[in-house]
Amino acid sequence: MAIDEEIEKTKKKLRETPVNKSTETDRGRLKAKIARLKEKKDKKEKESQASGQGYAVKHRGDATVSLVGPPSVGKSTLLNRLTNAESDVAGYEFTTLEVVPGMMKHKGANIQILDVPGLVSGASEDIGGGKQVLSVIRNSDLVVIVVDEEKIDMVSRMKKELYGAGVRLDKEPPNMDVFKKSEGGIEISTTRNVALEKDTMEEVLRENGFLNCKVVVRDDITLDEFIDGLMENRVYIPSIVCFNKTDKVISSELEEIRKGRKDWIFVSAEERENLEKLREMIWQKLGLMRVYMKKRGKEPDREEPLIVESGSTVHDVMDSLNKSFSKELSYAKIWGESAKFPGQKVGGEHTLVDRDVVELRF
Ligand SMILES: Nc1nc2c(ncn2[C@@H]2O[C@H](COP(=O)(O)OP(=O)(O)OP(=O)(O)O)[C@@H](O)[C@H]2O)c(=O)[nH]1
Ligand SMILES: [Mg+2]
Fold it and tell me: What per-residue confidence (pLDDT) applies to 129?
């Protein structure tokens, strides 16, 4: 394959280029070239896959979460415990070969959980059909990496795998903008705290075919982040690392493992240990909140909250109701923590918080 060879050749060159200030521009150009070739390869594969088979996973519910991890760590067991699914569980590896969905009810939200098997090293290079698996992950709102004591070292490998596929875990997109122009060459403006050399940026831009453009960089970013900002296929997804089978580890050992891994969650799917905490962590990481809609003179619907992104305004809530309103909002009455007093009148731009009650007036 010509593209593969080119990628390899460029990677080799990059490895052979020493890391120092004088080679930064060269390294930038090489890195940009690799990124561009990978994107080209991705596009080609997507085109050829469009007609062929792939994982057809319909996204349902308020959000979608992918469970990823090496074989036999208990992904299916976890899925069955968290949701209504009945995925096969067995003591040997690669029991689950396709994506199995389940629905988790939490705080009135329907959260779709996907058991995504087979993310093994080499997936981003498409060894063993890993590309489809990656596309399922790329389209989810949260990634839960599952491991057990035996496979604990796989966490960094899986993160690397996802990184190679353009998935940026727990990161914000770089604070920059690129405007393509029809003429005038490359124009770069940066804030004072940006250390990345303009020459390097220019080289990277040219390598990616941005010959006429205006680029604004507002934060000190690394070369890799700058390249990310130019690529179309990057996705930014939050993640959780879930250590399963705590029941199999003696407590002194478990203490040792927990040290330095404060942000991990430790559960036993089999013993149903800490699963409620995992549910809550999933909810928190998804950054969702509940809003109860109320009709004039009636009690709010406490059974079926509207699930919206944290920080949503009254207008956002109206948008997510998926209805077109015949009249403009005159005001909203609100109850709950964001209200100064019960039944406060607010405008569409008012920011709501979890569990607010909203009545729309037209
Ligand atoms: N002791 C213990 N065993 C568990 C736990 N969770 C799962 N297991 C066992 O681990 C084995 C593998 O579980 P699965 O749920 O099939 O694992 P998986 O990650 O889906 O495996 P693949 O589908 O092969 O990738 C089974 O024998 C489970 O009973 C747990 O919390 N504690
Ligand atoms: Mg399984």
Answer: 55
Domain count, the chain: 3
Sign of CA dihedral 49, 54, 59, 64: negative
List per-block mean pLDDT (blocks of 10 residues) for the chain, which spans 362 residues. Answer: 80 85 84 86 65 54 93 94 86 75 94 84 53 84 97 93 93 93 92 89 92 93 94 95 97 94 97 97 96 92 90 92 78 96 96 96 92
Residue 145 and residue 132 share a domain: yes
The CATH number of whichever domain residue 76 belongs to comes to: 3.40.50.300
| pLDDT at res. 156 | 93
Which CATH number fits the domain that encloses residue 324?
3.10.20.30
Q: Is ligand 1 within 6 A of the CB of residue 72?
A: yes
**Candidates 66, 67, 68, 72: which one to mutate for ligand 1, based on the most atoms within 8 Å of Cβ?**
72
- Domain that residue 342 falls in: 289-361
Query: Do 178 and 106 belong together in one domain?
Result: no
- Cβ neighbours around 332 below 10 Å, total: 23
Chain centre to alpha carbon of residue 140: 6
Cα-to-centroid distance, 175 and ligand 2 (Å): 39
Same domain assignment for residues 156 and 257: yes
Looking at residue 337, what is its pLDDT?
A: 96
Q: Is 200 part of any domain?
A: yes
| Segment (H or E) for 239 | strand 239-243
Instruction: Give the CA distances from residue 216 to residues 115, 147, 181, 197, 207, in Å, rounded to whole numbers and listed in that order.
Output: 40, 41, 14, 13, 18
Distance 16 CA to ligand 1 centre (A): 43
